[in-house]
Amino acid sequence: MSTEAVLELRTVSRVHGDGxxxxxxLRAVSLTLRPRExxxxxxxxxxxxxxxxxxxxxxxxxxxxxxxxxxxxLATLDRGELAAVRRRSLGxxxxxxxxxxxxxxxxxxxxxxxxxxxxxxxxxxxALEALTEVGVGELADRFPDEMSGGQQQRVAIAxxxxxxxxxxxxxxxxxxxxxxxxEDVLRVLRARCDAGxxxxxxxxxxxxxxxxxxxxxxxxxxxxxxxxIAPPPEVLLAADxxx
Length: 243
Ligand SMILES: Nc1ncnc2c1ncn2[C@@H]1O[C@H](COP(=O)(O)OP(=O)(O)OP(=O)(O)O)[C@@H](O)[C@H]1O
Hints:
The chain is globular. A six-stranded mixed β-sheet has the order 6-7-8-3-9-10, with helices on both faces. Strands 2-1-4-5 form a four-stranded antiparallel β-sheet. It has helices at residues 49-56, 79-88, 105-115, 120-133, 149-161, 179-194, 206-209, 233-240, and strands at 7-16, 23-33, 38-42, 64-69, 72-73, 90-93, 167-171, 198-202, 214-219, 222-225. 35% of the residues lie in helices and 24% in strands. A hairpin with a 2-residue loop joins β4 (64-69) and β5 (72-73). The chain has 243 residues and is an alpha/beta fold. The protein has a domain at 1-89 and 212-243: Rossmann fold, CATH 3.40.50.300. It has eight helices and ten strands. The protein binds adenosine-5'-triphosphate (ATP). Adenosine-5'-triphosphate is lined by residues 16, 23, 25, 43, 45-51.
């Protein structure tokens, strides 16, 4: 297994606007994710967590610094190439799931693969595999409104993981799920990282961050700890009991 960084942020800053009203959403953040690593990002509201995730996923561009996905600086890519990296290497799980209501679970999961040129029969097979991996294989032919919130969330994770993607970006993926279902979703994410992917997980909850290998903290756009040495005590306690 390669130990090359799957994601590397090199002294990345993001400033919105300019002059006295400029907002420094991120300040000189450096962060490296290696294969199999799940890193949690915590910090108060407005500290820059979503901005970090958007930059990592090529949905936003840094004002300074560089974002590298599997060794490629995203700034060197044209629009088409960036779109291809986003489809092939990256998976997103956001709070609003963005499942397409008119498509079944399997069709939702297969869609990004078909957009990437995979034949529909092969894309469906990949989708079934991804759905089975997250424990909802038997719901493949149901529509989103025929599933519970937790089941829909698993479908969204399957869609983020389908095919050869190696980097999963999750912004509060447990959203409004009850705590049991939320834990299940994190267990799936953890298992996927153990199987070779890398994950960046934004969360407000220390017990969710406990699933991560490392926890990094943002404050006013700056990383205040990237060592994992000094997370809050509750994170350490919870990590000990990780299932
Ligand atoms: N498009 C934008 N224009 C101006 N300011 C922005 C923009 N996007 C984000 N910001 C500002 O950048 C800062 C970081 O925002 P971000 O959404 O990354 O924080 P967050 O930690 O994810 O917050 P939350 O936990 O509330 O979701 C905030 O001050 C926010 O108001």
